[in-house]
Specification:
By secondary structure, this protein is an alpha/beta fold. It has a six-stranded mixed beta sheet, sandwiched between helices. It starts with 7 loop residues before the first strand and ends with a helix.
Length: about 325
């Protein structure tokens, strides 16, 4: 086959927002970025069609790579934190008239973006230098947003290979008596103590409420955005516990994936609390792994501050796939 002409359509679709963009030519960065509310559309195909009509002047791309916040298995996918029904890649392609379409997990796309991010797109966390992405060691990326995403990026002789998963659904890594009490209440309320139940947007609000219960306080109902900017004692304690739990969770991911090349932090929440994250217990809890502390201590951590990194990763995946199809 011959390479499909530009522009290409790329997307980063979560439970709250669906971001779309066009890639105009080889080597170009995604442009004409448009953000839609996921809940305003029946599914991915409909959201993409709205973007093309309202933000792209009706341009009809022939190839697309669309990252979604949920598992993608055998061409079928579902958003974990949205009311959309399960969809298929084939349906999206037919609906949009695409000759080539890929749908992948959003953190798989985020992982694919890592080798393409510059120093200005990253902020070191915990006093460590920026990770070195030289292809010699695995990388990990994780982060809280509407949900909690996790993925790895593995070096191979043929280049980087992403390793998507549903790591946000593992148990909460409670490490203090107070965290154990919060986890006990969480399990009683939700039937399980999944990390995403606390380390996400809704999770931050839930953590605020459960922590108040543990401390015998009465909590005002607040959103994650409100908790991030409030400075009352309970909100400060909530953010501190959030960062500590995230540090323990990130350390677990680093060990599981052998991510000696670095752990990257994404998602929509952390850029709002970047200064707090830096001064929090995140890094101490990241390193608090008895018997392997030296191993973990050598792993750098960095916050992704690029505005649309998953779009960069989707572009990289599409370019890689089409190049392989030409061979």
């Amino acid at each position: 086959m011959s390479a499909l002409p530009y522009p290409w359509l790329v997307a980063d679709v979560g439970g709250t927002n669906a971001r779309f963009a066009l890639v105009a030519e080889p080597g170009a960065v995604p442009s004409h970025v448009g953000t839609l509310a996921s809940r305003d559309h029946a599914g991915l195909a409909e959201a993409a069609a709205t973007y093309l009509a309202e933000h792209a002047g009706g341009i009809r791309p022939r190839a697309a790579c669309l990252a979604v916040a949920g598992p993608v298995v055998g061409g079928r996918f579902r958003l974990t934190n949205a009311d959309w029904a399960s969809e298929t890649t084939e349906r999206v392609g037919v609906h949009l008239g695409l000759e080539h379409v890929e749908v992948l997990n959003d953190f798989e796309a985020l992982a694919l973006a890592l080798p393409h991010l510059g120093e200005g797109d990253l902020r070191p966390v915990g006093g460590r230098e920026l990770p070195i992405r030289d292809g010699s060691a695995p990388l990990a990326v994780l982060g809280p947003g509407t949900g909690l995403g996790v993925a790895g990026l593995l070096p191979t002789p043929g280049g980087w290979v992403p390793l998507p998963g549903e790591g946000g659904q593992v148990d909460v890594p409670a490490g203090t008596d107070r965290e154990v009490e919060v986890m006990r209440l969480l399990r009683a309320e939700q039937g399980a103590a999944n990390a995403e139940f606390l380390l996400s947007g809704d999770g931050l609000a839930r953590l605020h409420r459960l922590l108040a219960t543990v401390q015998g306080e009465r909590a005002e109902a607040l959103t994650a955005a409100e908790i991030c900017v409030r400075r009352d004692a309970l909100c400060v304690q909530t953010i501190e516990m959030f960062c500590a739990l995230l540090g323990a969770f990130a350390g677990n991911a680093a060990l599981t994936l052998g991510a000696r090349g670095g752990v990257y932090l994404g998602g929509g929440i952390l850029p709002r609390i970047a200064d707090v994250l830096e001064s929090s217990d995140f890094r101490r809890r990241f390193e608090a792994k008895p018997r392997v502390e030296e191993y973990v201590r050598a792993i750098p951590t960095a916050l992704i501050v690029h505005p649309n990194p998953a779009l960069v990763g989707a572009t990289a995946r599409l370019a890689q796939t089409l190049a392989l199809e030409l061979v």
